[in-house]
Design brief:
Chain B: Keywords: ATP-binding, Nucleotide-binding, Transport. The complex is a heterodimer of chains A (283) and B (363). Chain A is mainly alpha-helical and 283 residues long. Helix content of chain A is 75%, strand content 1%. The chains are: A mainly alpha (283), B alpha+beta (363).
């Protein structure tokens, strides 16, 4: 905490914090205002005498109605949800086992294997989608949700593995040793002791993985083509930008509604999530 | 209940020879303490008995079974760790019941055993709490309880009291001793604290650099240390050492060094005769030094200069300079000495220790 005179607290704490909060929340505010702004106001030139960029006096739900009725938005939401949940589950499962093995078991090249997994995470997706597209085509998975469910783990597993590896390392080895002396096998010690203690870490890895798959764009853009198979991020940008016409109101409505599930998940698990990232375990 | 036999036990970690050829026989119901400075191999030895560390060579028997290849769960042991290792997501009750559940005990038997252990340890009130809500002492009790409920053949303790404050440590020390007397389970206890080792152990094993230095009852180690290391490690404050030369004069043997000239009694002289003209290490325990009175002969006393005075109440510790050596003398609290005083200290000729100058073994 900042000590000393009251003005110091304001200048060095409250003011920067306020700027930060405003800076972070402004895009969402802009999305919200644009969503409810009537077209007449949206396309009004900035020199017009009644130009009000930061608020609207005639809010409308037309854009949302258009988004829900005239596009496949709800379908996209379902697609995204289905793909994200499955990709997250697969990645979390693999990440848990890999993270545990790399942090606890002694085997040759454990260290270099860990680094190797991390390096695969550093390969940019914009390069990786080219060979992956070939694989997807060979397996005839193109334009199905499986194209994404099976390719998202390529970046999610390294990510989950690394996050969980760090978390497992912070759990005292003695806990597990004690369980094994108490009569548990290594597998039981892992399932009954290590995993429950690692819940904050597992949750934050899961949330991160879910968010990454929810927001993923390039694979979804390349591997899916029919409108009814698309995810939210691709669906909105491809169906609501037609040529050089931007349906700004509906675009922003889609972006806003699309970020609701992620925001919900974060707010539900915020405590675990912070504990998971900062790695604090009280025992 | 069982005996534990360790035969020619060795452990090497990537080139470091951590435990060297340890042989030890622990009798049924015995409380054996492994003690030594950090890195002496005591914890590694214990972990090998527990099955948490693989054995490079040698044999470990618990009861009559060779357990070398058995996983920890099949060795019928219980271990108490330095950091308690309580399962943070479980209540105290579940912590204590975990081992029994894993072994398929029925619910009623588990409840009974946990109840009995909780009573022994006085933690009945805490059974529904989580470990993070407990104090250090209570956590250690739970860790003990977790070991007790299992009725194992052997208890293993890995510095269980190191994380407690001094007062609690003494209290828990007594408690562990009581539990051992009550249950009679064979116990192996690792500590770096020689006081803990002396007070708890039926026998004490002193280790250094992976090698067992001496095995014996506490007073045996104190009175007849096998070498200079054991002599310096056991006893508090530690034994004073000085390098002296064995010399012959006036028909007797003398231990001589700057500021020290002690006439050796006949009994010791016989043993030291072959070191005539050589240097040996003289050891004197602080409690065997006292302020000389007029009746003390010059042959068994020496001059010193007081440098530091530590008043402990029951005794006074004087840090004195004797020639180039610094020594500690534990003297009566009635002694009135001031810093820089010259003081003549007398010693008990029967309580002198001599160690070989090169091998450091007791002479």
């Amino acid at each position: 905490m900042i000590e000393g005179a009251r003005w110091r607290r304001w200048v060095f704490f409250n003011l920067p914090l306020a700027l930060f909060v405003i800076g972070l929340l402004f895009p969402f505010y802009w999305m919200m205002v644009t969503t409810v702004r009537p077209d007449a106001e949206l396309y009004r030139p900035w020199m017009a005498p009644n130009y009000t960029p930061f608020w609207t006096l005639h809010p409308t739900l037309d854009h949302i109605r258009y988004l829900l009725d005239e596009t496949l938005f709800s379908r996209w939401m379902l697609n995204t949800f289905f793909i994200s949940v499955l990709a997250t589950a697969i990645s979390l499962f693999c990440g848990l086992l890999a993270g545990y093995a790399l942090s606890r078991l002694k085997f040759p090249f454990a260290g270099s294997l860990g680094t190797g997994i991390f390096i695969t995470y550093l390969v940019p997706q914009t390069l990786l989608f080219i060979p992956l597209a070939d694989i997807i085509r060979n397996f005839r998975l193109g334009d199905t949700p499986w194209a994404l469910i099976l390719t998202y783990p390529t970046f999610l597993i390294p990510f989950c593995t690394w996050l969980l590896m760090g978390y497992f390392k912070a759990i005292p080895r003695e806990l597990e040793e004690c369980a094994r002396i108490d009569g548990a096998t290594r597998w039981q010690a892992m399932v009954y002791i290590v995993f429950p203690v690692a819940v904050p870490g597992i949750l934050s890895a899961g949330i991160f993985a879910f968010t990454l798959s929810w927001n993923e764009f390039i694979y979804a853009l390349v591997f899916l083509s029919s409108p009814e198979e698309k995810t939210v991020s691709v669906g909105i940008t491809s169906e609501l930008v037609r040529g050089d016409v931007f349906y700004w109101g509906s675009l922003m409505a889609g972006a806003l509604l699309g970020s609701v599930p992620v925001a919900l998940i974060y707010s539900l698990f915020v405590e675990y999530y912070v504990a998971g990232i900062t790695g604090s375990i009280k025992g | 209940m069982a005996r534990v036999i360790i035969r020619s036990l060795n452990k090497k970690f990537d080139g470091v020879h951590a435990v060297k050829d340890v042989n030890l026989e622990i009798h049924d119901k015995e409380f054996v303490v492994l003690v030594g400075p950090s890195g002496c191999g005591k914890t590694t030895t214990l972990r090998m008995v527990a099955g948490l560390e693989s054995i490079t060579s040698g044999e470990i028997l618990i009861g009559d079974r060779v357990v070398n290849e058995l996983p920890p769960m099949d060795r019928d042991i219980a271990m108490v760790f330095q950091n308690y290792a309580l399962y943070p997501h479980m209540s105290v009750y579940d912590n204590m019941a975990f081992g029994l559940k894993m072994r398929g005990f029925d619910r009623i038997e588990i409840a009974n055993r946990v109840q009995v252990a909780a009573e022994i340890l006085g933690i009945q009130e805490q059974l529904q709490r989580k470990p993070r809500q407990l104090s250090g002492g209570q956590r250690q009790r739970v860790a003990l309880g977790r070991a007790i409920v299992r009725h194992p053949q052997v208890f293993l303790f890995d510095e269980p009291l190191s994380n407690l404050d001094a007062k609690l440590r003494i209290q828990m020390r007594v408690e562990i001793k009581k539990i051992h007397v009550r249950l009679g389970t064979t116990a192996i206890y690792v500590t770096h604290d020689q006081v803990e080792a002396m007070t708890l152990g039926d026998r004490v094993v002193v280790m250094k650099d992976g090698v067992v230095q001496q095995v014996g009852e506490p007073l045996e180690l104190y009175n007849e240390p096998a070498n200079r290391f054991v002599a310096g490690f056991i006893g508090s404050p530690a034994m004073n050492f000085a390098t002296v030369e064995v010399a012959n004069a006036d028909g007797a043997l003398w231990a001589r060094h700057e500021g020290i000239r002690i006439k050796l009694p006949a009994r010791i002289a016989d043993r030291l005769r072959r070191y005539l003209g050589e240097k040996v290490t003289l050891g004197i325990r602080p409690e065997d030094l006292r302020v000389a009175s007029s009746s003390d002969t010059a042959d068994l006393s020496f001059d010193s200069v007081v440098e530091v005075i530590e008043k402990l109440g029951s005794e006074i510790l004087l840090d004195v300079k004797v020639g180039p050596n610094t020594m500690v003398a534990a003297v009566e609290p009635t002694v009135k000495a001031k810093i820089h005083d010259r003081l003549r200290l007398a010693l008990d000729p029967d309580r002198l220790y001599f160690f070989d100058g090169t091998s450091q073994a007791a002479i």
